[in-house]
Amino acid sequence: MPKKRPVLDQSPGASRGSVSEVATGQLGTRELLVMISAIMALMAVGTDLLLPTFDDMRREFGMAPNSNAPSQTITVFFLGLALPQIIYGPFADRFGRKPTLYTGLSLYVLGALGAALAPTFQLMLVSRFVWGLGAAGARVVATAIVRDNFVDEAMAKAMSKIMAVFILVPVFAPALGAGIIAVLPWRGVFWVCIAWTIGIFLWTLRLPETLKAEHVRPLTLTNTLRGIRQVGRTPVTVGYTVASMFLQGVFTTYLASSELIIGDILGRGAQFPFVFGSVAILFGIASLINGRIVGIVGLSNVINRASIVLVVMSMVLLAVALGSGGKPNFWIYMPLLGLTFSTFMFLVPNLNTAALGPVGEIAGTASAVTGAARIASGAIIGTILSSFITVSIIPFAVGMAALCSLSTLTVAVVRHRTANRLVVGAALTS
Predict the structure, then answer these.
(1) How far apart are CA 231 and CA 208, in angstroms?
(2) pLDDT value at position 216?
(3) Which residues contact 12 (CB under 8 A, 6 or more apart)?
(4) Residue 261: CB atoms within 10 Å
(5) Which of 85, 233, 298, 304 has the fewest CB atoms found within 10 Å of its own CB?
(6) How large is the average pLDDT for residues 169-195?
(7) How far apart (Å, rounded) are the C-alpha atoms in residues 9 and 15?
(8) Which range among 72-86, 149-163, 185-199, 356-370 has the greatest average pLDDT?
């Protein structure tokens, strides 16, 4: 008999902190969270490990030394990651989390294999898109499993712990990628990604199905559209998703252009893996702090305050970029950028949690719709904005300041409208 362990009840009527007995096989809470982190890390492994290969990619495919074309391997991956989530979500709500996960893992391996063997850059991009399609299934399942087991602040804490483990991948991936291409052909990084995926498959055999029978939804077009409409008619979900879309645009731009920004514009090409990893360490520290703060001051307060801090920091970065003519001092700009990005960890997981809170009964579909919107918009913004980043950091700084401001404005609008509804509701019931 599978051993039963207590997890927070996800049912709509459960009070915060209530406990239900859910079969989790041999998994404890800690192993479950680490496993989810490893699943989510498939996305980071599929992007960050490739960054040190961009110079080799330019040489093999006959590109200019400062070409930003390799950044397309990142944005195309994110497009693939975004689009199928609306399909994966209903699939996960009908057939369960594990079948959906294994479908995604299969496509992930197929895409990585195609990239490893692609003879042209165009076929490389096609393979990267398929690779992203596979990563999408893993992402939807990971978020849905967390929502199956945790609610409200408990979910925010769980997501923060997951992100703290997940962030170890960006810390070490560029250095690992550089190490791989130092001893193997640069396409060796793709084979490492395949090995990681096979390891995930074997590990998740221990994971039981977390979708409750009463939450299984028929897989019909009508039912799927009904779920999508429910998400679209939930103002809090829409508002916080839009706010996260702007932040995703900033993050995707940085990820796609980081090798060019740090290596060429700031002149630290040899130290790129370590600089990139140092910024990622700040992400991890902020994520751990966020998990503690959310439980003390509440989800909404953290979102509201972090949004204001983010706008201020992005404006400071813009001033530094403009004041230096687009080529700021490395020791001034990168620490400020790292601190600014660490603020993202007080927003992105919390915005996702707040967006899913009102639609927990359709966690798979809701996670898919919001994730697809966020990542697709981020990929589009990243593709456009990164194309302007060649010899100056000003386009990045301007875009970052504008997008962070739009995100904060959206959060303020959601907060204002939510407060108004509460006031009206109290007046009607008095």
Answers:
(1) 27
(2) 72
(3) 360, 361
(4) 23
(5) 233
(6) 89
(7) 8
(8) 185-199
Strand partners, 21: 6
Q: Give pLDDT, residue 9.
A: 40
Token pair of 159, please?
Answer: 């997501």
Residue 15 backbone dihedrals phi, psi, to 5 degrees: -80, 155
Q: What is the mean pLDDT of residues 131-138?
A: 92
pLDDT digits (tens, 9 = 90+) for 382-411: 989 998 998 899 999 999 999 999 999 999
Rounded CA-CA distance 85/367 in Å is 8
Integer Cα distance of 137 and 42 in angstroms: 10
Q: For 328, which DSSP code? A: -
Q: Which residue has the tokens 């079948």?
A: 99
Shortest CA distance to 26 belongs to which of 53, 61, 1? 1
| Single-letter code of the amino acid located at 13 | G
Report H helices in 150-271.
Answer: 152-166, 168-183, 188-203, 221-232, 235-260
**Phi and psi torsions of 8, nearest 5°:** -70, 135
Q: Are 334 and 341 in contact (CB under 8 A)?
A: no
Residue 51 to residues 24, 48, 59, 273, 368, Cα–Cα distance (Å): 37, 5, 14, 9, 27
Going by C-alpha positions, the residue among 280, 243, 253 that lies closest to residue 397 is 253
3-state secondary structure of 28: coil
Closest to 131 (Cα-Cα) out of 197, 216, 54, 199:
197
**What is the maximum span of the chain, computed from C-alpha positions, in angstroms?**
73
Q: What are phi and psi of 222, to 5 degrees?
A: -60, -45
Copy the structure tokens of residue 418.
Answer: 């939510």
CB 380 within 8 A of CB 58: no
> Among 281, 303, 277, 278, which Cα is nearest to 290's?
303
pLDDT in tens, 316-373: 999 999 999 999 999 999 999 999 999 998 998 899 888 887 887 776 678 778 888 8
Q: Alpha helix locations (H) across 261-393? A: 272-297, 299-323, 330-344, 348-356, 363-386
Angle between helices 221-232 and 363-386 (to 10 degrees): 70
**Amino acid letter for position 179:** G
Q: What are the structural domains of the chain?
A: 24-416 (1.20.1250.20)
> Which whole-number Å values give the CA distances from 267 to 171, 205, 250, 328, in the listed order?
20, 46, 22, 11
Report the residue count for the chain: 430
